[in-house]
Design brief:
The chain has helices at 24-35, 52-56, 61-69, 74-80, 86-109, 135-145, 163-168, 205-223, 249-265, 282-303; strands at 5-6, 44-45, 111-114, 152-156, 175-182, 195-199, 227-231, 270-273. By secondary structure, it is α/β, with parallel strands linked by helices. The chain has a single domain, classed as Histone deacetylase domain (Arginase, Chain A), CATH 3.40.800. The chain has an eight-stranded parallel β-sheet with strand order 2-1-3-8-7-4-5-6, with helices on both faces. The longest helix has 24 residues, at 86-109. The termini are close together.
């Protein structure tokens, strides 16, 4: 058995020329993972589009219909920050399907990775911060409704607070939301996760990893989740345009190893999404995203390859 990796060609649908956040990074990420031998073709699982019922388990039906049909109010569209197109709408939905599939695979295998996902700024009735539908929340809701899990932990290490996820599960004890983020970054108005850890600007690798190590084991012990959903955003990187923290490539890899090793060693299945990352050098950005899959592959070899 190999580490399951979820990818679909629709992840690579591009935005119009000149847009500052090229979606080609999803395709380039898969190409890099294959070229470097991090994964092979027989590890790839392809998701299906989610049903409207799955999307509407978290989001307002009118919002879902308006976005998917391209009739969303212009002001609401500007709040998302991405120009609408049919291909982007399909990619957005496919990424949700990918996170749902990743979560299912993680329950069966112990660890699985999506090559997209992490749209944690999407609220029930509107999108925000380049996030349209909240894939983490939808995946959690689908698994809970199907009775596959009773308790979920969302570990959100994107540099920005997972405000949409916090609101969606604000009164839901079956989902524990943990967000460790730069306090002086977007969103300006923070919501209340079950645990928020606000970090100072410019924090580097070692203090970051010590802070994470101070919290994660205790959270796992207290929550004892049936599944961990891990948002491994790379925007805490020192070169990220929207970050304000100062992690290096090595720091990001150590972070992912720390999260995955801790969870898997204790027997908690982990479903991973790549989260945010913003840089003019797309290939450097793609490499940073690949660190999650490199760490997952190493943990998989240690934890499961002999099982």
């Amino acid at each position: 058995m190999h580490l399951p990796v979820v990818y679909h060609p629709k992840y690579g649908a591009d935005l119009p020329d000149g847009h500052r956040f090229p979606m080609a990074k999803f395709r380039l990420l898969m190409e890099l993972l294959l070229r470097d031998g991090v994964i092979s073709f027989d590890q790839i699982h392809r998701p299906q589009l989610p049903s409207p019922q799955w999307l509407e388990s978290v989001h307002d039906p009118q919002y879902v219909t308006a976005y998917c049909s391209g009739t969303l109010d212009p002001r609401a569209q500007r709040r998302i920050g991405l120009p609408w197109s049919p291909s982007l709408a399909e990619r957005t939905c496919m990424a949700v399907g990918g996170t749902i599939l990743t979560a299912r695979l993680a329950l069966g295998c112990g660890l699985a990775c999506n090559t997209a996902g992490g749209t944690h700024h999407a609220f029930p009735a509107y999108g925000s911060g380049f996030c349209i539908f909240n894939d983490l929340a939808i995946a959690a809701q689908v698994l809970l409704r199907e009775g596959l899990v009773q308790k979920i932990l969302i570990v959100d290490l994107d540099v920005h607070q997972g405000d949409g996820t916090a609101v969606i599960f604000g009164d839901r004890p079956e989902v524990f939301t943990f967000s460790m983020h730069c306090g002086a970054n977007f969103p300006a108005i923070k919501q209340h996760s079950d645990l928020d850890v606000s970090l100072p600007m410019g924090m580097e690798d070692d203090p970051y990893l010590r802070t994470l190590g101070h919290h994660l084991p205790d959270i796992l012990s207290a929550v004892q989740p049936d599944l961990v959903l891990y948002d491994a955003g790379v925007d805490p990187h020192v070169c990220d345009h929207l970050g304000k923290l100062a992690l290096t490539d090595t720091g990001l890899f150590r972070r992912d190893m720390q999260v995955l090793s801790t969870c898997c060693h204790l027997g908690y299945p982990v479903a991973c999404v790549i989260g945010g990352g913003y840089a003019a050098d797309v290939r450097a950005l793609v490499y940073r995203h690949s660190l999650l899959h490199r760490a997952a592959s190493e943990v998989w070899q240690r934890q499961y390859s002999l099982g």
